[in-house]
Amino acid sequence: MRAVSQIRATAVTLAVAAALLAVSCGSEPTPTPTPTITAEDVRDRAADALRDLSTVHFRVTHEEGGTDIGFSSKLTEAEGDGLFPDKASLVAKATTAFFGDATVELDVVQYGETTYLRDRISMVWQDLPQGTLAINFVNINGSIADALASIGELGLADGGALQGAPVHKLTGTTPSTSMRGLVPGAPEGGTLHMEVWIGQEDNLVRKVRLTGPLVDADPPDITRVLELSRFDEPVSIEPPA
Predict the structure, then answer these.
(1) Full-prediction pTM beyond 0.90?
(2) 119: how many CB neighbours lie within 10 A of its CB?
């Protein structure tokens, strides 16, 4: 009888264990699916993040050639800081016919509606009339945001990493006029091909590659690269004394 009781107890124990195992397996939570992010989501978040910036460090280069900025000069490179909504300070490199197409460095301060410029030869500041310089850096963040908001034919891919951060790569086309915040004279009827590298975690634009004309003298395949960094770091910009 004791053997029979032991067998019955063992059977009951096994049955209870099996029942508990079944309940345990059946109660496992269903994995939550990862939300799918769309190209439109990335575009809109990046545009909002740009407009929210207080400062940014920027670098503008050309894959070849330059941008006609007046004064018989072509801008090839510019690097500086924007203090939004209406200030920028930068060092520009330009080729100029005044010096036999040599490259010169220019200091530029854009303060509200006034642009101050000096070359590194004379070291004399000039107060330029509004609109004299073809490029206006004081609203570079808003101008890129406007171009993003107008982008069509959207594509989205993994962009690898930039500045140590994983990025999306957004592609599409936008009207040249969407960049008039940066280039006020951008022509009507033009189209820019736009490639934008955007932080996956912070929605910040790290790099923009623009192919297409922004001033009348541009060839159709001109390509500019805009790099942004040092987001919201303290910056002080004042007009030259």
Answers:
(1) no
(2) 20
